[in-house]
Amino acid sequence: MKTANHTEVREFVFQGFSNFHEHQLTLFVVFLIVYILTLAGNVIIVTVIHIDHHLHTPMYFFLSVLSTSETFYSLVIIPRMLSGLVGLSQSISLVGCGTQLFFFLGFAITNCFLLAVMGFDRYVAICNPLRYSVVMNWRVCTILASSVCASGFLLSLIQAVAIFRLSFCNSLIEHFFCDVPPVLDLACAAPILNDILTLIITLLALTAPSTFIFITYILIIATILKIASAEGRKKAFATCASHLTVVIVHYGCASIAHFKPRSEDNRDQDLLISVTYTVITPLLNPVVYSLRNKEVQDALRRLMGRKSLP
Predict the structure, then answer these.
(1) What transmembrane ranges does the database entry give (predicted)?
(2) Where are the domains of the chain?
């Protein structure tokens, strides 16, 4: 039972990877390499899409927005985590924690919505190809991208304000960044409204988009199976393969992290799950779209060939 008599907390201290003290240098090297690869991969994808006119289509427009969002998503979390691994300050001010949580949630929710929009793009392209250029015109694409970003940060703002209006009785965050559950654990008394709000935002950010994508892919698969030629079916599946791979891993990791019952005995396990969706998942996007997507590979070859000319 937390006491009502408490000193007002003005800063938090991350416990981080203190339970893995003997492996912190190894973790630093691994996470740094992953972070550099993530930044490089996403920057390359955005650059190639911007330069190569063959990729000036709605699908790659949304991919460039997703890569940009993933880049900033990593930037919010990983640099501070790396500094903690090499023994630099593990403390963060109340305002700094609120800011980190706001941007982390904003980009995370935006990424979930963007994947749903990309699923809708694939649905229109395969199930209604004759009207694709009309339905997915540039005005619609811009409105969709702006709307998902605004919605993501609006939900994030609501969540952050609700949390940081509380009083905190403990300053030790048993995590490596300001995520919702670890910060709520420090509150002297968290009203049930906070739990309800967290559940609603989780349903809106994870369950609703993933359900929407699931329905669109049922319709997409049903349409593909009606294609007479095997080559046509293969080509149609190929246009969805990269997106579907990212969707499965992204929503799979996020769902495990947010819907798995939390336990005092599984803090290390929760930490490793968090590493998956904050460090590993952002790398997935450039890897999948570079290694599995022929159009991006061809664009990279054209770009490299152009640079090699005198």
Answers:
(1) 25-48, 60-81, 101-120, 140-164, 196-225, 237-259, 271-291
(2) 11-305
